[in-house]
Amino acid sequence: MSNNVSVIGGEPLGQQSKSATDLRPRIAVLGCGYWGRNLVRNLQAIGNLAMVCEPNDKAREEAKRIAPDTRLESDFQAALSDQSIEGIMLATPAETHFPLGTKCLEAGKHLFVEKPLTLGVDDGRSLTRMAAERGLVLMVGHLLEYHPAVIKLRELLRNNYFGKVCYLYSSRLNFGKIRTEENALWSFAPHDIAVILRLVGQLPLEVTCVGGNYITSHLADVTVSTLHFANGVRGHIHVSWLHPFKEQKLVLVGTDRMAVFDDTKTENKLTVFDQSVEWQERTPIPKKGAIHAQSLDPAEPLRVECEHFIECIRTGAQPLTDGQSGVDVLRILTALQQSLKQNGAPVSLSDVL
């Protein structure tokens, strides 16, 4: 980190509004369930965890195991009323994000919200506006944007390493953790949408989505989405929790080179292929070259994300994944959901205000 700006992936995120000191903002985590326990673990490790609020007895015991010396509460109000708590990380069900997030901001707390920011675009805008009016940090947990592989891809794109980008394809597939509250699109796709938007650098003009309901009649277990961008790039997203094996890949195809980010690998997660197409006598000829595994920072993405939230509180910097980025993802999810309901009919993003 610079002394004057907060940086992720080599890009300044905002000027400081107060001096960066050795202060350790006191953070409370609301929810210590499936994902919240990971936030608790990381905040405990970096020394900023002050409280965990969890109404479930079993989950509260898990919090005690991870952070034995941390104050545990069963009522979320304990964090809201404690003046020593500066920030709150919200890891509760998505339908609670707006009402709980509103209470956190009204209490003057900096706020981190796991994805999705809310379940509605208007609610997301409301939280974003409220945070800005109060001078509070609002950050969304788009975790993949803090992954070293994605940060490296952004660096390569800035250097025009791939030539003109043709398309990106992401797959987030698994067997298990079948939701009954939200479909696979809303559960799995926010991460991929956020990364594709960051890599392309603009919002799509139009989206399409198709899928199938096999377990619960009203919820899609698998969806295939396409984002159409003004610069000609296409983004394709395939998500499913009804798949025989786990796959988490992002493929980027450019006119000069191609790349694969495979997050299921323990090493060599990002690989660049010196592959392109050349025209010879009006015939397209595939040109295959070397394959290069990229050297990546070994940092855990969630640790980087938590540290970034802390740094933004300390310095007043704008988070990389701020409220507006959360709203952008919500607009696309909403448009994709409309297309899904219309059996894949194209939906213009301009229709989702």
Throw out a few tags for this protein.
alpha/beta; 32% helix; Dihydrodipicolinate Reductase, domain 2; nine-stranded mixed sheet; 353 residues; disordered N terminus; six-stranded parallel sheet; single chain; Rossmann fold
Q: In the CATH hierarchy, what is the superfamily of the largest domain?
A: Dihydrodipicolinate Reductase, domain 2
Number of domains as seen in the coordinates: 2
Tell me the span between the first and last alpha carbons. Answer: 36 Å
And the CATH topology of the largest domain? Answer: Dihydrodipicolinate Reductase, domain 2
Instruction: Spell the H/E element sequence.
Output: EEEHEHEHEHEHEHEHEEEEEEEHHE
Which architecture of the largest domain per CATH? 2-Layer Sandwich
Q: Report the helical percentage.
A: 25-40%
Describe this structure in words.
By secondary structure, this protein is α/β, with parallel strands linked by helices. It folds into two domains: 160 residues, NAD(P)-binding Rossmann-like Domain (Rossmann fold), CATH 3.40.50.720; 176 residues, 2-Layer Sandwich (Dihydrodipicolinate Reductase, domain 2). The chain is 32% helix and 31% strand. The protein contains nine helices and 17 strands. Strands 16-15-14-13-9-12-11-10-17 form a nine-stranded mixed β-sheet. Strands 5-4-3-6-7-8 form a six-stranded parallel β-sheet, sandwiched between helices. It has a two-stranded antiparallel sheet with strand order 1-2. Helix 1 crosses helix 8, helix 4 runs parallel beside helix 5 and helix 7 packs across helix 9. The longest helix has 19 residues. The protein is globular and about 75 Å long. The protein starts with a strand and ends in a 5-residue tail after the last strand. The N terminus is likely disordered.
